[in-house]
Amino acid sequence: MVLRKTLYSLCAVIVLLGMTGCGASAETAEAFVDTVKVDDSASDETERPEGWTEETHGDEVDPNFDVVFPQDKVNRLDLTISAENWDAMLADMTELYGEFGQGGGMGGGRPGGLPGNAPQGDRGEPLEAERQDGAQPMPPANRPLNNGQPGMGGNISDGVENPIWVTATVAFEENTWENVGIRFKGNSSLKSAWSSGNYKLPFKLDFDQFEDDYPEIDDQRFYGFKQLSLASNFNDDSYLREKVTADIFRAFGVPSAQTAFYEVYVDYGEGPVYFGLYTMVEMVEDTVISEQFTSDAGNLYKPDGSGATFAAGSFTEASFDKETNQDEDDYSDILAVLDALHADTRLGDPSTWRSGLETVFDVDTFLRWLAVNTVVQNWDTYGLMSHNYFLYTDPETDQVTWIPWDNNHALSGTGMREALSLGLDEVTDQWPLIRYLMDDPVYRAQYDAYVGAVVETVFVPEEMAQTYQAYHELIGESALAETEEATMLRSAADFENSVHSLIQQVNGRYEAVQDYLNR
After folding, report:
1. One-letter-per-residue 3-state SS of 6-57
2. Is the sign of the CA dihedral 413, 416, 421, 422 positive or negative?
3. Neighbours of 343 (CB within 10 A)
4. 85: part of which helix (H) or strand (E)?
5. Is the pLDDT of residue 305 over 60?
6. Residue 319 neighbours by CB under 8 Å, 6+ apart
7. DSSP H helical segments within 342-406, as ranges?
8. Which of 87, 227, 257, 299 has the fewest CB atoms within 10 Å, i.e. is most exposed?
9. What angle do CA 397, 403, 408 make, to 5 degrees?
10. How far apart are CA 49 and CA 218, in angstroms?
11. Is the pLDDT of residue 154 over 90?
12. Which DSSP letter does residue 118 get?
């Protein structure tokens, strides 16, 4: 709105100068400016949608984490997408990834049709019922894909545009939000679900994406949030990894998104259909940087690709996608980190090298992240894959800070790759942020101290067992109500057994840490 007013004013000045320069009277020119001002005033008086309140829809309130990210309940979110928009979304996905269900795996619905033909408001036949009487579990919809180069991220959508935005109505509790932007999102989670014929597709919401088309929703928010992500819990039979790992990072002093559980229903012209249990994830570019840093005015990057390894000579602007300040073609903060990391003083004068690196890079936060990430085990991020993290240049410190992202493969030692060892000896200088820091005795000692602290403070076996069990019970009914047409579960039994696997893993990691520190 401020930008709009500025443009009106600028246009008025230009016209005023042009009119007076062409011989028009000053009174005529001033009358035109008054007309512009009247029009601007009228635009401020655009009637808001019914039910709009500043608390629920406005942008002048602080984000309400208690409402949007509750820790002790499963929220329900209803998304209404017109049949025309739904068909457009599916047609766009077909153009990007091929025909729905072409990869086999989970069957069920058809593009544009109602998955499972469930009646309006019904969840359909739940997994729990379908698994009785010795029925065979469905084929896995979440088998891993790796179309990228080894160590370069394996990004399924490399070279593929993001899916299209369309408008939707969002309903939550007693309130509705009109003309909200919605699109499919994700890489392997999206590609695998689509190719397998699985309707549990991840979504991204932007509450004022279409404000230019619908002025009445200018600066619309969802309890203070502009954007939100609905993660489908891809490749996670527990549905807990995304949430629990993000909480562990934050508890250990690493900036990380807030998360919560949501039942999601989608009505695309045939009544509300249960698409399953999702994890709502706070968007880094929206509120993570505004709420966990002193200012959100700095550069935010979402690195991906060869440059995201920070290897010598690998930098490209394309590898550091800007999420803020996109009009400024300035990557000096990233280049400063690269210069400091690869400085000749690293071997000749380590003290000077550390000082130079710490001036431009938040080394402490990175070591905290590295310790947590290695202890809990996560193979789908830096050190093995060159993606799934953000970098934010904090204006308060001028340091580039590490922010983890996309944790659905954490809390597991295997996947497409083996997770890194605690000693990190296998990491090469292809990943210099790890290798160079671990080769430095000061940083190695700091990392080791953090590794020990992780299992004594935020990843304590007894406490994690209680956390896992509590969340499992919280989401159990919602998870088992998913249908074959829209689920990431291979079977109800896999979901039920997932807590035992998680508890075994945390116990094993505690013992592994003790062995590592006592070596």
Report:
1. HHHHHHHHHHHHHHHHCCCCHHHHHHHHHHHHHHHHHHHCCCCCCCCCHHHH
2. negative
3. 15
4. helix 83-97
5. yes
6. 303, 304, 305, 306, 307, 308, 386
7. 345-348, 350-360, 363-376
8. 87
9. 170
10. 11
11. no
12. P
Residues 505-508: contacts with CB within 8 Å, 24+ apart? 505/377, 505/411, 505/412, 505/413, 506/411, 506/459, 506/461, 506/464, 506/465, 507/461
- Which phi and psi (to 5°) does residue 493 adopt? -65, -40
> Quick one: pLDDT at residue 507?
98
Q: What is the pTM assigned to this prediction?
A: 0.84
* Interatomic CA distance for residues 94 and 370, integer angstroms: 38
**Distance (Å, rounded) from C-alpha 212 to C-alpha 7?**
14
259-234-183-284 Cα dihedral, nearest 10 degrees: 40
Ranges of H-type helices in 98-158: 127-130
Dihedral over alpha carbons 458, 463, 469, 473 (to 10 degrees): -80
Q: What is the chain's alpha carbon radius of gyration, rounded to the nearest angstrom?
A: 25
In the DSSP assignment, the letter for residue 335 is H
d(CA 222, CA 211) in angstroms, rounded, equals: 14
Residue 463 is given by DSSP the state H
What average pLDDT does range 289-300 have in this prediction?
97
**Secondary structure (3-state) at 278:** strand
Amino acid at the residue 86: W
Token duo for residue 52: 């709009």
Task: Locate 87 and state its tokens.
Answer: 């068909």
Query: With bands split at pLDDT 50, 70 and 90, how would you rate the model's confidence at 104?
Result: low
- Assigned token pair, 395: 């204006």
Count CB-CB contacts under 10 A for residue 264: 23
Q: State the Cα angle at 219 between 217 and 223, rounded to 5°.
A: 95
Q: Contact at 8 Å (CB) between 12 and 36? A: yes
- Phi then psi for residue 103, to 5 deg, are -90, 5
Q: Which residue has the tokens 């399953």?
A: 276
Does residue 506 sit in helix, strand or coil? helix
As a whole-number percent, the residues of the chain with pLDDT over 70 amount to 81
Q: How many CB atoms lie within 10 A of CB 319?
A: 22
| CA–CA distance, 176 with 222 (Å, rounded to integer) | 10
